[in-house]
Structures are given as C-alpha cells and as structure tokens.
C-alpha cells in the first residue's frame, strides 16, 4: 500500500519491504541501514503542515536516494528509509544529503531528527532493528532535534531498578544504549565506574539503596557525550582548546537528558561529576560542600577507571601510580574523604 499524498509506501508497505530486504541480506550475507526521519516543528494535529513537509522531504529524497533505496511514510511526520549495502555511516550520510537538499528548495527549514540502525549489528529481525532505530531517534529528539544519532552499544542489562526488575521507562535504556560506543577507547568504562562508585558509596556508609542509585549514575555519568560530535568524542589523541570546551558541555547535556526520566534524582550528580573542591572543575566551578557527595564519588571512580585503562594516545597507568595520583589530587581535584574510602574499597 502507498500513502496517496506523498506517493510513498505506507507503514504496511514498509513492513513488507523491510522483511524482503532482511531476507535478501541474510541470503547474500550483506548489510543495510534503517533510517528513521522525524520532521520537527509540527504538532500531531497540524495535518496540512505535516503533509506539506512530507511532500518536500519526499521530493528531496527523490534526488538524494538511490533507485533501489526504499522510502516510506510510516507516520504523520515520520519517514523511514531502507538503504541496501550501507552501514550506519552510510545511513547518516544520506540524512546529511537530505538536509543539504532541503536547504536548496527555498522553503522554510525543516528540523530533521534522524535515528540510524544497521543490519546485522543492531538487530537481526525487523522488530529488533526497528527498536534500535527508534532508540537512536529518541535520543536525537531528547537532544533537541535536528541531528542524527546512530544506534550503538547496549547497556540495557545493566540498568535495573532497586528490586532488580527492568526499568519500565524506555528513555533511560535509550540513553544507555548509545553510551560507550561513541568512543572505542571507552567500551566498558561506564560499567567499571559504576562498580567502583557503588563500592565507594558503601565504604562511606551510604545505604545499599543509595549506593545502587550511585551505581546507576556511574552507568550514565558520560551519557551527555551522545550530544558531542563523534569527531571529538572519538578523537585519537588530546583535544585542542576549542574541542575541549565543547567536550566540557557533556555533563550539562547528560543531566538534561536524565532529568526527564524516572532517574531524575541522578541529574545533579551527573551535572557535577567534573567539579573539583578547589573550584577548578566544570561546568559551574563549584567548591567544597557545594559539590554533591555522590558527584564526588563519581569523579574519583571516573578518574581511576580512566587512568588504569589504555588510550590510543597513552598507555594505562599501573594501579599503584593511579592510587598515587588520587592521593596527590585529594583536597584540590578530589574530595579527600572520597579518595580515602575509594582506596580502602580497593584493598
């Protein structure tokens, strides 16, 4: 079936096309990208405006998409694309070409939030692949829209409520799914920070429930990096001044993302996990007791986990050297009581 207005396949036609592409790609051991495009600035009842926007996007895709790419209208203001032979980068590149083409038509700009998933890496079935693309699209929209987000590493198993049941709110899972793979160096980093932070919280006498919340904050402490360009997050070397300044925005982005979920109580800790007792941290330059204890725990756990891990531009420090660095920074860069508790938790 087709959508009569834009003359695009509708959601039913798209579902059939996706199953056909899955079967073709499985047989040929090939890949493809699934791209979801949400057109912004339209309310759900703004039918005519949304229809006109879809018509413009359909016309632009007629220029930038290949003849064998599948384009379908799957919602009032949502378009889906199947891009055979493409990986996530290929799907993202198509989205960027679409943005460029829309700027050329002389009409008012359209915000495009784009989520990209890749077969087979991000799902071997239609259901899983669409879930991955929707997760990426959800983060693009949470970040303010008009950007492209590619699905990546899944931390869903690590995010549980206090009773061990899966979180019901999809958004925390969506955030976590994109956390570590933005930077190849950081795979597993958040899990290590979470474990260190929970141990330290318990050593400081926090309740087991509070320590569990600190662990969750450890899993999500760097989630704001999904809003930083991948050329900066994944840069294979030290950042220059301008790049460092942009990277410093990740605590605020992360806090903004988390505060709209059931994990909102973690937002102040995520916001402050790069603050320092001497006021030399960021983003607010907090000092001493202005910094939440939980944020100070994250800061120490984050620093140690980073120091004992290899980076493309430096080898890992040994455990003794990393401990010495923490002791050297106690009172200036780190909360002394947290450093003491952290080191005790390692013993």
What would you say this structure looks like, in words?
This protein is an alpha+beta fold. The protein has 2 domains: 2-150, Reverse transcriptase/Diguanylate cyclase domain (Alpha-Beta Plaits, 2-Layer Sandwich); 156-346, Hypothetical protein af1432 (Orthogonal Bundle), CATH 1.10.3210.10. It contains 14 helices and 7 strands. A 5-stranded mixed β-sheet has the order 4-5-3-6-7, sandwiched between helices. It has a two-stranded antiparallel ribbon with strand order 1-2. Mean pLDDT is 83; it is low at 153-174.
Short note summarizing the structure:
The protein is built from 14 helices and seven strands.
Question: For the record, what CATH class of the largest domain applies?
Answer: Mainly Alpha
SSE class: alpha+beta
Distance between the termini: 65 Å
Annotated CATH homologous superfamily of the largest domain:
Hypothetical protein af1432
- Strand tally, please? 7
**What is the CATH topology assignment of the largest domain?**
Hypothetical protein af1432
> What is the alpha-carbon Rg in Å?
22 Å
Compute the number of structural domains. Answer: 2
Instruction: Label the CATH architecture of the largest domain.
Output: Orthogonal Bundle
Percentage of residues in strands: 5-15%
Poorly predicted residue ranges: 153-174
Shape annotation: elongated
Helix content: 40-55%
Provide a count of the helices: 14
What integer is the average pLDDT? 83
């Amino acid at each position: 079936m087709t959508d009569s207005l834009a003359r695009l396949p509708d959601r039913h036609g798209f579902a059939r096309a996706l199953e056909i592409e899955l079967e073709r790609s499985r047989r040929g051991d090939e890949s493809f990208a699934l791209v979801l495009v949400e057109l912004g600035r339209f309310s759900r009842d703004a039918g005519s405006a949304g229809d006109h926007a879809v018509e413009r996007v359909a016309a632009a895709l007629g220029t930038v998409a290949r003849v064998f790419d599948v384009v379908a209208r799957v919602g009032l203001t949502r378009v889906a694309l199947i891009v055979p032979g493409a990986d996530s980068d290929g799907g993202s590149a198509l989205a960027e070409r679409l943005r460029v083409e829309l700027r050329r038509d002389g009409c008012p700009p359209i915000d495009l939030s784009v989520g990209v998933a890749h077969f087979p890496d991000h799902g071997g079935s239609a259901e899983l692949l669409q879930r991955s693309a929707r997760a990426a699209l959800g983060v693009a929209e949470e970040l303010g829209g008009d950007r492209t987000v590619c699905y990546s590493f899944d931390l869903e198993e690590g995010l549980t409520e206090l009773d061990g049941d899966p979180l019901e709110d999809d958004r925390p899972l969506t955030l976590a799914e994109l956390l570590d793979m933005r930077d190849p160096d950081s795979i597993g980093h958040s899990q290590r920070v979470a474990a260190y932070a929970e141990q330290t919280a318990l050593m400081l006498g926090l309740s087991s429930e509070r320590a569990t919340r600190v662990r969750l904050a450890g899993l999500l402490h760097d989630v704001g990096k999904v809003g930083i360009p991948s050329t900066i997050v994944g840069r294979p070397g030290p950042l220059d001044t301008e790049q460092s300044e942009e990277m410093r925005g990740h605590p605020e982005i992360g806090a903004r993302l988390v505060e709209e979920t059931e994990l909102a109580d973690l937002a102040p800790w995520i916001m402050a996990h790069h603050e320092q007792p001497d006021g030399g941290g960021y983003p607010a330059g907090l000092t001493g007791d202005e910094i939440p204890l939980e944020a100070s725990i994250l800061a120490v756990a984050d620093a140690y986990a980073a120091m004992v891990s290899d980076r493309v531009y430096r080898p890992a420090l040994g455990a003794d050297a990393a401990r010495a660095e923490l002791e050297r920074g106690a009172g200036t860069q780190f909360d002394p009581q947290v450093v003491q508790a952290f080191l005790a938790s390692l013993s």
